[in-house]
Specification:
Helices cover 26% and strands 21% of the residues. With 473 residues, it is an alpha+beta fold. The structure holds flavin-adenine dinucleotide. The site of flavin-adenine dinucleotide has 41 residues, from α1, β17 and α8.
Length: 473
Amino acid sequence: MSEPAYAPPVSEVPIHDVAIIGGGVVGCALFRAFALAGLDTLLIERDADLLAGASKANSAILHTGFDAPPGSLEHRCVVAGHAAYTALHERLGLKLLPTTAILAAWTEADLEKLPGILATAHQNGVHDVRALTADEVRAREPHLAPDVKGGLLVPGEGVIDPWSAPHAYALQALLNGGALLRGANVTGGEREGGVWRLATSKGERRARVVINAAGLQGDIVEAIARPSPFEIRPRKGQFVVMDKTAARLASAIILPVPNERTKGVVICRTAFGNLLVGPTAEETPERVIPTVEQEMLEGLLAQGRRMIPALADEPVTALYAGLRPATQFKDYQVEAIADQGWITVGGIRSTGLTGSLGIADHVLGLYEERFGALKPIAEPVWPMMPNLTEEFPRPWQEDGRSSIVCHCEMVTEAEIRAALTGPMPAGNIGGLKRRTRCMMGRCQGFYCTRRVMEIAAPALPGLVAKIGGHADA
Ligand SMILES: Cc1cc2nc3c(=O)[nH]c(=O)nc-3n(C[C@H](O)[C@H](O)[C@H](O)COP(=O)(O)OP(=O)(O)OC[C@H]3O[C@@H](n4cnc5c(N)ncnc54)[C@H](O)[C@@H]3O)c2cc1C
């Protein structure tokens, strides 16, 4: 389902200060930053709803940056992103589960790497990371296999709701004058007289500065402005979601000792009350549909049970996979090209959920340096997001609530209806699930799909998200 094809006559196409291509978490954070900076900003997303790419499926960990390459842009943005989320989440109604993490050593080789990781953490300014003996690890996490050899405690790592955060960023941008165009694939562009004319599947859009935040399509979109200096090499991560009864088996995020390529398989609670085992890290040419494979999932379950033996008795709720927009480079690929009116924000591989607010600040700084002064909005509007997390009160617990539609995730009819209306309604069923959790529980929609469809059907054809000062999007 996509927004109606609407192309304003060319003579009426307004010129935005900034057009952002890509409504993943990075595009949403950029949208918020630029709109609050007082710039006339348009966010263009090719899918019918936001978060259709890498941002659809991740581990939802708010990283401290303790293990990021020191001196990298990724490290700076992750630290800044963590600080920004911590500072602003309550004003947007967003949640943070301060779970802490334990990086557990399972072999002598792992144990030998711990002092180096601890030194990197301190070099990265994350001074509260400290060593734990095997006994201390076991005392904190009694369900871990008894042969754990020691570990590091990382107090600042937490878990968030991976969808409400970017939705909040985009909604705040909309409420402060930004414009959103969904279901519009950007297929090309030309720059004339200092203005970009972007060709989209919903007609032309114009802007003085274009930001490429197209994630898994980043190199293809980059070719609109120049031969791409990076190549997207998608890296798939598969996950197993254990039933909610398994959440009691780990209170901290259990991290493995990472290797050169990946942070490795993590066991961690989700904001929605499940326990996650994953992700894998697999090179793939696929950029759009992350498939799950039986063999990999069995391997993940075996790894999970190796770390927490009691997982063997726990049922699996779901399987999913995500694609990381990795490139041939380790670091983020961010660059402002002043004479082209173009900013590249690519290769935001595996920390973008955390880093997004930091990236947005960094890019805003580049914009100010290269393209002109900002006029921040004096008193921005702050939307409050509905709570979807398990640890805080939800509408089904309130007196006088409407009927429950999804009994696995306890989603009420009123929540579903609310997600289909307002300034940024769900654009498709995936977007509705990310806004409410409906159909995402143990039965995976077996019992509630029909009712959800009945409620959603009248709203889903032709959704337009339009608010603020712009009537074009
Ligand atoms: C398995 C896995 C685990 C992860 N775990 C974590 C974690 O625990 N913590 C953390 O901080 N990060 C994590 N990440 C990383 C994080 O999810 C990514 O860094 C982030 O989602 C990248 O976002 P993005 O906005 O750059 O890209 P995307 O989410 O891919 O967004 C790009 C958007 O651009 C749109 N688009 C593409 N081409 C066009 C076009 N031509 N026209 C219009 N729109 C277009 C796409 O539809 C998409 O919506 C993980 C990622 C994966 C895959």
